[in-house]
Amino acid sequence: MSTTPLRAAMVPVVRQMRAYFAPVNRTTETPTIFDPGLSGAFPLETPPAPWVDLGWIDNFARWYETPTGVVRSGAKALAAAQYRGPLEARVEFDFRQWGKLQMALAGGSEHMNVLAPASGSASPAASGGTPAAAIAVLAGSTANQLLFGTGVTSAFVAGELIAVDVDYQQQTGYVGSGIPAAYVNSAAAVNQDPSYVRRVTFNVGRIGEVTSTSVLLEQPLPGGAPLVGASAQVVVAFVDREGGSFFQEWSALFVAEAESGGRVCFYYPRLSPNPGVGAGKFLREESAVIAKPCSAIALKGSFVALAYNDTNDGQSVLCYRSYFPAGMAAAY
How many helices and strands (H and E) does the chain possess? Predict the structure, then answer.
């Protein structure tokens, strides 16, 4: 029998957590699945689509707040069984990197792309006024390369951000290619704006190179290849708003990559930004001092977990915690 000491390898020592998010199909409430049996070697730098890497996060904390009751029986009301009350769990952390998805998740409702304004525009708006005309994207475009007609690419410059999605055409319900970005109740609510879908879409990328007929993106569009009839507009900024009626919903994976020992993963099939509640108090964002007078502005993420029915046994669950032991670590 081996006498090699194994227990030291059972302590996952980590520096930070890393966050990955993927869309939920809002029509069917189908999450993006993380199968630990297939994804145990989940590559942190190149996550498989549709997972999006949102960088390292700090102050990761989670709460399981499902109450447990006791069934009592007999003359002395002895405890005979237990039952669980309404399922509830929350997650909080700080994004240390800023980007469209990080801002959207910290804000919690519709997140807006500020489209480049039309020349001489006289209709200012807090989330962006009248934009410059959109440019049609040709068939055959991919999530990494957008095709345009000859000469059209002169409207774009390497380094610019670009939003790619279909025109708004009076549709109601969820809008946004690949990732639901907003819910439209009526065309009048969005002023029948043909650029509205591109104002909210998550299909945004940074132009890396401009050719005579196409633009190449530095990262693939999160929502995938442009749909037929999609157009593109330059984005000059992102803006989120405190308020709004739309609630986002995502699948989330948090990975603790161990400095020694095994890897720990927390998978939430359905996680919804919930900035209104945090650890029994209102959400508070603060700057993190680096070295005075310099500080980093953090984005606070606060989320509530929504229930998911496990296909193996039909049980309603909120979170899956996976542990991948280090090589030769003891089983217990």
Answer: 2, 22
